[in-house]
Amino acid sequence: MALNDKSRNEAVLQAITANRLRDGEVIFLAPGSAVGSGVAWVERLEDAALFEDAATADAALAAAKAQAEGERFAVDVYAFDLRVADGQRLPVKTRERIRALGPTVRIDLGKQAAA
Amino acid sequence: MNHIAPGRNAGVYSYDDIDRRFVAERVEQFRAQVERRLSGELTEEEFKPLRLMNGLYLQLHAYMLRVAVPYGVLTSHQLRKLAGIGRKYDKGYGHFTTRQNLQFNWIKLEDTPAILNELAEVDMHALQTSGNCVRNVTTDQFVGAARDEVVDGRVYAEILRQWTTLHPEFTYLPRKFKIAIMGSDADRAAIRVHDVGVFAKRNERGEVGFTFYVGGGLGRSPFVGKLIRDWVPEEDFVAYLEAILRVYNQYGRRDNIYKARIKILVHELGQEKFTQEVEEEFARLRGPKYRLAPEIVDEIRRRFGGPAFETLTDEPESLQAAKAANPDFARWVAVNVVAHKVPGYAAATISLKPAGGIPGDATSEQMELVADLADAHSFGELRVSHAQNLVLAHVRQDALFTLWTALEANGLGTPNAGLIGDIIACPGLDYCALANARSIPLAQAISARFADPARQQTIGELGIKISGCINACGHHHVGAIGILGVDKKGEEFYQITVGGDPTLTTAIGDILGPAVTADETVDAIEAIVEVYLSNRHDGERFLDTLKRVGHGPFKERVYAAH
């Protein structure tokens, strides 16, 4: 099943996120991660794997959850929706935009500070 | 562990070896638990309740550590330690909360045992700041200093801290449990919106006793606490509270998190039946084991020490001259300074709400400055208010100008305590994993709109309280103007309520109309204020005018453009 939102022009994609266990840092599943081939994480949304269809996203999410607990690397693993417009990755929900960047009231902090 | 003993201990409970050993043991327990989690011996499901018992949450950007400030009172040494932790382990700041605690927003799990160890060095911890236990007991920010104080609530709050921390029946309650105590004729601790609200008072013989309100609370289902007993003698203080908690533990719902708080139990059983259950339990409990002996109370009171006040007079000439020469100082005194029980002293509120600022946030540098000022002017002691400000409670009136000058030079002299700029706001969606909408940017926009101190003073007492979700950490239900952030199809909207009141005349605010956008909310607040000013009679507060004229004129103006 495609994840496209028919009400908008841009395709709705998915990315997978979590918090790193040891320090709580927001992380995203890296491209190429899959069950059996290893799971890797990146700290920036622009480097994250994007999934165009639900079946692939579900499989990657399952692999990420298994690795997160098995290797004690990440917690609170879940998928979220985003769009890509003009090369920018924009999460659909404000919550995920804030997680990907940092607090809107302290733009000197979080990932946005190092951008 | 190196203990840094509090210096001139003026009104801050002094730990003994038993207290210190207990806190140190908890630090070591948690250190081992963190090691077991990182090694894989504990799953996240197993570890989560353990970290929550130590005040460690997982928020949007990182772990958040909520440090307990018991009943909001701390020493300058402790504040310096918090400043140091903020600088060393966080990003150079902390956030003071509506429960008189401090939150660090950027904590690493692997650092947490070291942080707790540093806290223990100054007799602090993060216990009872999370989980389904009796949380940090809150009280009046002017406790022990207020001119209208009848009973010093700190003593009884500390007794409850000791009674509840290790109590086996209170470790796995159906849900979190919040107690607030007031010892004055006024209510500055919002006691009737707590699970248990206690009024400490004296009878005609001068004996201490307590009035108990139960079943108040905000959140998804707001309720005003019900009076279940007007007078509980001091010796039965602990027994009566134990009886309440036992009834809650027995009948409270554990099958539905939304119905698990005691307010739902009181509501469903009814005030009469609930009271009857408590009284029956109390009758069974009452006896030597639960008797709070006067010697225990006296010993706890002694461990608080007390400032060595000098014999002074109110309104010294130097204060009068400074006010006459400096209108800004005079305004700050009029707004942020209240009478002290000892003549010649005053309690000063240090606003953490500069116009356009983040309510409750303080940098490590600001904390260190306030600690220095506490040493210089308030016996090394200070308080956190539930309104997210700091208080120096024992300042000589002839030192107020010196204090204000230092605060003003460092951006801490905002004269808005209790005014429209003194906005209570939860961290909201900028930090909190539970939030639906941002709170802080709205608070910033409103305080910037009403930045003019003279205008704020003209408007007078008007509390705005903002929550980013229905959990109501920003107490929006009891704001004279309350604002609740909601998510509508991915967009942030704000629902406005009016008429909330956290004081003795407790009231839950009424929804004014449909939710509006953030920009519209700021305009709506302006409209509400204009309607108030154009309708108010002499001496009326916002709530008085609202009560007299009703919601109609306010609603009409706010939604005129819709």
Protein model, in words:
The complex is a heterodimer of chains A (115) and B (562). Chain A is an alpha+beta fold and 115 residues long. Chain A has one domain. Helix content of chain A is 22%, strand content 27%. Chain A is built from 2 helices and 5 strands; from the N terminus they run βββαββα. Chain A has a 5-stranded antiparallel β-sheet. Chain A is globular and about 40 Å long. The N terminus of chain A is likely disordered. Chain B is an alpha+beta fold and 562 residues long. Chain B folds into 4 domains: 105 residues, Sulfite Reductase Hemoprotein, domain 2, CATH 3.90.480; 167 residues, Sulfite Reductase Hemoprotein, domain 1 (2-Layer Sandwich), CATH 3.30.413.10; 93 residues, Sulfite Reductase Hemoprotein, domain 2; 135 residues, Sulfite Reductase Hemoprotein, domain 1 (2-Layer Sandwich), CATH 3.30.413.10. Chain B has 18 helices and 20 strands. In chain B, the strands form 4 sheets. Chain B has a 5-stranded antiparallel β-sheet with strand order 1-2-5-4-13. In chain B, strands 3-14-15-12-11 form a 5-stranded antiparallel β-sheet. Chain B has a 5-stranded mixed β-sheet with strand order 6-7-8-9-10. Classes of the chains: A alpha+beta (115), B alpha+beta (562). At the A-B interface, helix 2 of A face helix 1 and helix 14 of B.
The H-level CATH homologous superfamily of the largest domain in chain B, spelled out, is Sulfite Reductase Hemoprotein, domain 1
**Which range best describes the helical content of chain B: under 10%, 10-25%, 25-40%, 40-55%, 55-70% or over 70%?**
25-40%
Strand order of the largest sheet of chain B: 1-2-5-4-13
What is the architecture of the largest domain in chain B at the second tier of CATH?
2-Layer Sandwich
**CA gyration radius of chain B, whole angstroms:** 23 Å
How would you characterize the largest beta sheet of chain B? 5 strands, antiparallel
- Write down the overall geometry of chain B: globular
Instruction: Characterize the biggest β-sheet of chain A.
Output: 5 strands, antiparallel
Q: Which structural class matches the secondary elements of chain B?
A: alpha+beta
Stretches with pLDDT under 50, minimum 5 residues of chain B? 3-8
Q: Count of helical segments of chain B?
A: 18
Secondary structural class of chain A: alpha+beta
Principal-axes shape call of chain A: globular
Spans of chain A of at least 5 consecutive residues whose pLDDT stays below 50 are 1-7
